[in-house]
Write a structure and sequence with these properties.
Blueprint lengths: L2 H5 L10 E4 L2 H9 L3 E3 L5 E2 L5 E5 L6 E10 L5 E4 L2 E4 L11 E3 L5 E2 H6 L2 E2 L4 E3 L8 E2 L5 E10 L6 E14 L5 H10 L4 H17 L27 H12 L8 H4 L9 E2 L9 E2 L16
């Protein structure tokens, strides 16, 4: 659609410009527990993402869209006893806490046809990062939407969004905020899976995973055996290997997992319904300590 065609679209000043914050319910959940946003030296994206739906603009006019980060209170905060408390110190507000939407400037029709998303914003605590928004850590912010008509700087629409209030931090302080981020942020899935795997690994390591071999005499207690010497680990393995691997015994699978038998003549395989088979001679097997479950 050309510029002249856009100008011919029906539009009247009687329609006020309005802006509506999308995902308001999600923002309210975070606001209820004092939302936090990470700021880093390299920049960190926001979650939830600020998205707005705008109506009432002239379809054929050009507009530039900004997002302003307003420092709510000129005080530094600290997280003590599971709550945020203001301190007596403060940092001056940053010089240019504005983010220009990368699709600006654009026609009013473009801004109204689809939600205005600020998914590409990156928050930093360094003032010299080009293209990123500099915020003071441990200070509270909320955002305002600015819609400026190109060629007429006096024609400005400003919309406050108090639901987006948050605390700028270098690491999450409130565990409840962390849980909500993991719950709703699809990009936090990797972090969630890593945390679950780590917890499962800790549980496995805290349990005794050694199990006696199937069919072996489970009443043997090597820690109380009369011939066991607790100071010599090799004696333990010698006793175990001596009882498990006598010479001249059948080394087939069916016989290996039963009590050792000397001068075994015949071998009855498992599930053989009692049929006897001629014994096959095998060389004595050698097993390492790792294979034995150590």
């Amino acid at each position: 659609m050309t510029s002249s065609e856009l100008q011919n679209l029906t539009w009247g000043k009687r329609h006020p410009v309005r802006s509506r914050l999308l995902d308001a319910q999600l923002w309210s959940e975070f606001l209820a527990i004092n939302n936090e946003m990470i700021v880093t030296k390299t920049g960190r994206r926001m979650f939830p993402v600020i998205k707005t739906q705008v109506t009432g603009l002239c379809p054929g006019d050009m507009y530039t869209v900004f997002l302003e980060f307003v420092q709510v209170v000129g005080q530094r905060w600290k997280y003590i006893n599971s709550e945020w408390s203001p301190t007596t110190t403060s940092d001056p507000a940053t010089k240019n806490p504005f983010y220009k939407h990368p699709e600006s400037p654009n026609f009013g029709k473009h801004w109204m046809d689809q939600p205005i998303s600020f998914a590409k914003i990156k928050l930093t605590n360094r003032p010299d990062n080009p293209g990123q928004t500099h915020l003071n850590s441990l200070h509270q912010y909320e955002t305002k939407l600015h819609i400026v008509k190109v060629g007429d700087p006096d024609d400005v629409q400003i919309f406050a969004m108090p639901q987006t209030r948050f605390m700028a931090v270098t690491a999450y302080q409130n565990e409840e905020v962390t849980k909500l981020k993991i719950k709703y942020n699809p990009f936090a899935k990797a972090f969630k899976d890593t945390k679950v795997k780590s917890e499962e690994k800790d549980r496995r390591e805290s349990q005794d995973v050694y199990q006696p071999a199937l069919g072996y005499e489970s009443n043997l207690n090597f820690s109380h055996h009369e011939n066991y010497n607790a100071t010599t680990s090799d004696d333990w393995l010698t006793q175990y290997g001596g009882q498990r691997e006598p010479m001249n015994r059948c080394q087939c699978t069916a016989c290996y997992f039963v009590k050792p038998q000397v001068n075994h003549k015949k071998c009855v395989p498992i599930n053989s319904s009692g049929q006897e088979y001629e014994h096959t001679t095998y060389q004595p097997a050698s097993y390492s300590w790792t294979q034995l479950g150590g």
